[in-house]
Amino acid sequence: MHHSLSSIRHLKLSLLVVLVSLNSAFAQLKSGPMVGYSDMLEVMLWAQTAQPAKVKIQYWEEGKPAQKRSTDEVLTRKESAYVVRLFADQVTPGKKYEYEVHVDGKKVAIKYPLRFQTQPLWQWRSDPPAFRFAIGSCNYVNAPPYDRPGRAYGDGYEIFGSIADKKPDFMLWGGDNTYLREPDWNSRTGFLHRYTHTRSLPQMQPLLGSTHNYAIWDDHDYGPDDSDRSFWLKETAADVFRLFWGNPNFIFPGATTGTFTWNDAQFFLLDDRWFKAPNKLVSPQRDYFGEAQINWLLDALASSTASFKFIVSGGQIINPTAVFENYANYSAERERFLKAITDARIPGVLFLTGDRHYTSVHKLDRAGTYPLYDFTISPLTSGSANPVGPELTQPTLEPSTVVIQRNFATFDISGPLQGRILKVTVYDVKGQELWTRELRAAELK
After folding, report:
1. At what angle do helices 234-244 and 188-199 cross, to 10 degrees?
2. Which of 139, 169, 387, 398 is the most buried (most CB within 10 A)?
3. Are the CB atoms for 137 and 377 separated by under 8 Å?
């Protein structure tokens, strides 16, 4: 009897030790894991610990857990907000993988699925596979000590569960992905604090852990409201953006400009801050994207073979109303920009934008060629806003697409290579469909 009591005590103690070690490992994970870019032979993975720790990720092809591979083990450091960027480089094209996170040698207990995928090698072999991506912008996470007095501005965080439920292959974050406050934008400490606070939102974690993520920025995750190229801490802003996101490339030093492909679609991520002249600068030739970035974009568009070429920008492009920070405020550059795209006869161009805290579609008809569409998808968790009076009567606006509530969209691309179809669906916070429409690649030639 005494022997069995002793055994029970020993068993309880062993279980307690196991639980404590699991909890300590889980407690050490501050945010993430997050899945970054995907390519055929490499996938970027991200995590953030609460204190210095050695982190590695073990992964295996779906259904083959006996064949585990591992990333390097990396020590997280205070100066990098205990963020670690790891690379799954023992992968092959067109496969789905599961993974687990190890902190200081212990597997972290995570209750939701952790998955990533490699892009398929379809070229010269088959039609491109069907795929889905999600998009949203303007993500405000409340922080009462630092928020403005009055009613809380952020809400509807369950939207991230609704996005995850749609099972997109990747999520495109369209700017204002976090909102810097007054205590944040004058120091590196402030930047790291705000990015960490937003990234740690519990409702966001399942989406981050099983969906690839790409991002641009806008003013609120770059600096103060409406900030521009004169922002004094822009180098810090760029460093922290690169630390917290998993884009595959950056074309210019500092700027978040970049590009990536997914099957037969290419995404051109534009930076509407780094080169941008101040809103109040009196000059007829003010920069918005700037000459260097526009020249790169035109070259990249001209050399792209993608069925759909998505130009992603924080601010609206096609809306001709010169309000807030729409491109229409920079009319000389906007006119040159749109004319250059038309003159280059580039097929398949579409715009994806955010910023405005309401969703809408603008369609610009062009003589002798296809119309340009601008899908503005906003906001995720920030407060919603109404269009300004003149916007509602613009001939470019499709009134049935205006959504004045928190929302997100999915873009589904399917069909054979010579007959690709794009289906856009906008959903509310709970994942209920608000509107949908289809475009064929053949209509954009």
Report:
1. 30
2. 139
3. yes
Q: Which residues on adjacent β-strands are paired with residue 59?
A: 69, 99
In contact, 138 and 176? CB cutoff 8 Å: yes
Domains along the chain with CATH numbers: 2-117 (2.60.40.380), 131-444 (3.60.21.70)
CB 369 within 8 A of CB 342: yes
Predicted pLDDT of residue 285: 86
Determine if the pTM surpasses 0.70.
yes
- % residues pLDDT > 90 (the chain): 93
Per DSSP bridges, beta strands 212-216 and 170-174 are parallel
In whole angstroms, what separates CA 400 from the centre of its chain?
26
Q: Please enumerate in sequence order all residues whose Cβ is within 8 A of that of 40, keeping only pairs 6 or more positions apart, or say none.
A: 92, 93, 94, 118, 119, 120, 121
Q: Which residues contact 295 (CB under 8 A, 6 or more apart)?
A: none
pLDDT tens digit sequence for 17-70: 333 344 444 458 999 999 999 999 999 999 999 999 999 999 999 999 999 999
